[in-house]
Task: structure prediction
Amino acid sequence: MASTNAEKQQYSEVEVEGELEVSPDVLIKHPLENTWTLWFFKIDPTKTWEDCQMLVASFNTIEDFWAVYNHIDPPSLLKNGRDYSLFKQHIKPMWEDENNCNGGRWLLNVSRQQRTADLDNYWLEVLMLMIGETLEEYSKNICGAVVSVRNKGDKIGVWTEDAKDDISNIAIFIVIFLIAGILDPWKFPIPGK
Result:
């Protein structure tokens, strides 16, 4: 369906008396429930593990997420031994952080053969579900996620705040790995079988 000139002007730039004005609708950003911080890990034998973690950027809108995401290499292009981590602001991607020390993680192993075909899509899907608060009341239990590129195979981990909160942790697993299509529910082992 073609847009009329009036509709186009409503959502775009308008020239008024020689000055360019932008419709407020174009300037509105879409806030996220939380502020998120992207970290990059690069091993350096001369530094402590914690010092190898580099804060890349923090964001709290979907537009700022895309601005960051579109200016970094995808995980499949990272060299072996490198990680990206995306955690809620003020939570470091380390087990010693007070928000992580009683938590757990769901871990997805991705074979080297899947790196070019699947790793980037899986990582993006996890990020979108996580920052979009898709899990509603269970989202508060998510601390962050890590993608690790390794010689033997890559990993995506979703870190949770409370390892004993079974209902929340199972909901996180179901939404992030099964509903997102990362794991085939028909190939998932049934406990007790």
Notes: The radius of gyration is 20 Å.
